[in-house]
Structure formats: structure tokens, C-alpha cells
Amino acid sequence: MDEKVSSLHLVRKPKLLEEVRQVLRTKHYSRRTEESYCDWIRRFILHHGKRHPRNMAGEEIDAFLTHLANDRNVAASTQNQALSALLFLYREVLKVDLPWVGGFDRVQRPAKLPVVFTREEAQRVIAAVKPAVRLMVQLMYGCGLRVLEVCRLRIKDVDFGYLQITVRDGKGGKDRITVLPVSLVEDLRRQVEAARHQHAEDLRKGFGEVWLPGALAVKKPGAARELAWQYVFPAARMSRDPRDAAGKERRHHVDESLPQRAVKEAIRTAGVRKAGSCHSFRHSFATHLLEAGYDIRTVQELLGHKDVSTTMIYTHVLNRPGIAVRSPLD
């Protein structure tokens, strides 16, 4: 009897959220998406009294989305994220092909103008940022990088000879090349040298491996210990990747919350009365290039936008050359 129970335990079917995680990882979804989808699925189940999703359908999904909008007052993007998670659950995990799936229209996000710093405001905020993360913020403004793209920057992707930075696996899984400001070369060299010293110390202690994307760790087993693959901005402490079955202790990149908090604090210190964030520096990069007369297609390539219509939003905050309108009062 005990042997039968034991054998049943060994071949037990994974719990629903475990199954969701397995499918997400098989399809190479990011860790953030995995956490977000599992969280929404958990909320959906709890909202309906812990009923299994197989016993629910369109009516329950509609009720949950309505609850988010009416009772929780969530933004349209948040509601769409919840819908994406539930559609993934039914289509990819439960393999339930329900006719009502196509009947749900995603909420249209209202168009919002980006928060853009003037050149003077950008410099004031950068000057107020703590020295430990100032270079990261300068790269956001000087290169048009997203905060995570700065955090994930690897030594091999900084080209001092051609004054360019290669962004790997950016938003949408795309790679792109952007400019490296001459004024940041020496500071960036010093940061790379500091990362080299940290890596050498980790190797001396028997560590020194870094996480590698895809199957690269299998194709190139030694690459994880090479300097080229190390992060330019390494974390202060070693950590374990929860998605890694081996549970190896590695030095990951610095957490994005560090520059995010620093920028928020710096905006207040600098007295800039705008609801800015790290992403405002990327907006400012694009706007100031357009103001300087650069072609919008060039800016599109530097930002990595798939469609030029996305880049066009920056012309809305220009007096020239974007919309070339002069106020009659002037």
C-alpha cells in the first residue's frame, strides 16, 4: 500500500501554476512575464472562490476583468495584461479552444504624451543623482537606453573603438546599435575596469560565472566565466537564479530598482516639477535629437522602434522641427 502511494506521489501531475511556469519557460517567456502571468492567474482563481479554471469560462473572465476596472480602478494596460495571462492559460496550458475568446476586445490605452526633460532639467537631475548610479543615468540619456537595457549591458557589447553600444534582446527580442557619447568613454572605461576587478576576485573565490541566454551555456561551457560576458554593472552580492535547476550562485546585474529610486530622489532634489522617471531620459534623448534636426528614421533606429509611428509621438512635444507651428502670440 505504501509503495503504491509512493509511486503515485512520484508521478503526480504538476499543480496548475507549476504547469503554467513549465509552458512559459518552454516558450522562452521572460522571468518577469512568468511572474506576472502566474500572479494574474492566481488572482483570477481566488476571485472566483478557488474554482479550477477548467470549470470556468468566458462569463467568469468577463466578471474578473469588470471587477478590475470597476472595483480596483486599474489602468487599461493592467487590464490588458490580466487578459493576456488568462488567454495564455486557456490556449496554451489547458488547451481549451473556447469560442468566446475572440469576443473579448482589449481596452484601448489612451494616448499619453511622454514626460520630457529640457536639456537644462536633464543635466540638473543627472547632477543630483548619487555618484554610484550616475553613469547608468547618463547612459539612459546619452544613448536612449531603457533602464533594464543599462542594467543588462555586458562588457562585450561596449565598443570603444567605434563609439557604439549594442543592445541585445531589447524590447520585442530585437538587437540594435546606438551611439556611445564621447564624454562618457573614460567613465565607462573605469566602470569596465571595476567590473574586471570584481570578476577576478570572484574567480579567485571559485565563482565567476554569469547567466547566459538561451542554450549558450551548453554550446560554450566556458563562456560564463569569460570577462566579455560579465555585466558592466554587476550586483553587489551573489545570488541564485530561481529558474536554474542547478541552483548555481552567480553575480547578476544590478537591480533596476536602484537607478529608479535614485532618479526619483534626484528629480525632487533638483526641483524639477515633472512626473519624470528613468524612462523620461529615453524620451528626452529622442526629443532632443529631433530638435537638433536629426532625421526621424535615424532616431527610430537608435530607439529600436519597430514602426516610425511610435517615434512620431516625440514630434508632439516639439516647437520645431516636428510640427513646425509658430504660435500667433509669438
What does this structure look like?
With 330 residues, this protein is mainly alpha-helical. It has 2 domains: 14-103, Orthogonal Bundle (DNA polymerase, domain 1), CATH 1.10.150; 113-330, hpI Integrase, Chain A, CATH 1.10.443.10. It has 14 helices and 5 strands. The protein is globular. Mean pLDDT is 86; it is low at 4-11. Helix content is 48%, strand content 4%.
Secondary-structure element order, as H and E? Answer: HHHHHHHHEEEHHEEHHHH
Overall geometry comes to globular
In CATH's first tier, which class of the largest domain applies?
Answer: Mainly Alpha
CATH architecture of the largest domain: Orthogonal Bundle
Observed structural traits:
mainly alpha; 14 helices; two-stranded antiparallel ribbon; three-stranded antiparallel beta sheet; 330 residues; DNA polymerase, domain 1; globular; single chain; 2 domains; 5 strands; hpI Integrase, Chain A
Concise account of the structure shown:
This protein is mainly α. The chain has helices spanning 2-10, 16-26, 31-47, 58-70, 76-93, 119-128, 131-143, 147-151, 185-204, 216-219, 257-270, 278-291, 296-303, 308-311, and strands at 158-159, 164-167, 176-179, 239-240, 249-250. It is 48% helix and 4% strand.
